[in-house]
Design brief:
The chain has 14 helices and eleven strands. It is an alpha/beta fold. It has two domains: 165 residues, 3-Layer(aba) Sandwich (Rossmann fold), CATH 3.40.50.1970; 184 residues, Dehydroquinate synthase-like - alpha domain (Dehydroquinate synthase-like, alpha domain, Up-down Bundle), CATH 1.20.1090.10. α5 links the parallel β5 and β6. The chain is globular and about 60 Å long. The termini are far apart. It comes from Aquimarina aggregata. Its EC number is 4.2.3.4.
Length: 356
Amino acid sequence: MKPIVSKESIVYFGQECYTALNTYLEKANHSKIAILVDSNTHEYCLSLLMSTIEKEYDIEVIEIEPGEIHKNIETCSGIWNALSELGFDRKSLLINLGGGVVTDLGGFIACTYKRGINYINIPTTLLAMVDASVGGKTGVDLGNLKNMVGVISESEMVLIDTEYLGTLPVNQMCSGFAEMLKHGLIQDREYWNKISDLSQLDIEELDQMIYDSVVIKNKIVTEDPTEQNIRKYLNFGHTLGHAIESFYLTHPDKPVLLHGEAIAIGMIMEAYISSQLLSLTEEDLQHISDVILATFPKIDIESKDYQEIMNLLIHDKKNEKGTILFVLLTSIGAAKYNCTVDDDLILKSFEYYKSL
């Protein structure tokens, strides 16, 4: 597959990843290299990566605990200290081998350690392949508030090899699929139609589906790298989805939701709002709801929790001057950003989801 070029980075696919990586490592002549993993990618993915590196380099492996709950400044502090103690300088390289937590957090660490060292993302989950590793967004959570601290700075390259997906649990695959569905909903009805029926999908087509999803996201972020306008489209489903994810992340009596599971709920609710405020048809709303619920189990959101979830919306990063701003759909394949929604309609979107 042809590499996808963004403003400052290149996304490689399949075996070409490792040709590009070895060429880069030889030319760059980094003083030291660290590979950031979590305990899962250390066990299941690191050996594959190491087997592809052709020459001997001074490589350190730094491991963190898996999961969104560890995507915080405390984890960063531990890694910054580790890099310092290991003698990493500004000519060093950080390779992030993992899902969205590792690539988001690792990118942030690289951008801030000694005011910036080079980094490479090697996503190992479907979610990270189609979303977290592309576009230069890095960051960590502040308490239960998603990605509140971070910078936008692209990696040297992104390497997407679907062989890493072989050990991924089904729920993690589905989590990534939510972002692929989102890309279709905001930009490309044909792509949505292609992937919306999982029963018709051939696993052999997965590489092409991922490629097409990255093309959609890359086109948007190349035109608007700092999210001044159309990059906001990528937040469809995320205003309510992030609030739901944050609420469930730290509530002692609630299950922790994967990112894609929360965004799936957010997309249904925000599609409902779109049908009430914009031109999304009732037929398309029902189709979106049916497709998402065919993949993602319905979550019981109790009525007594609605207001507490809504209180978290004020922290959404798209907000301006205290106004909560949504991305909504005008149709499948077309979106509008900077939409305001009153509280009564948000509450009705909860009830719509509950009624399905």
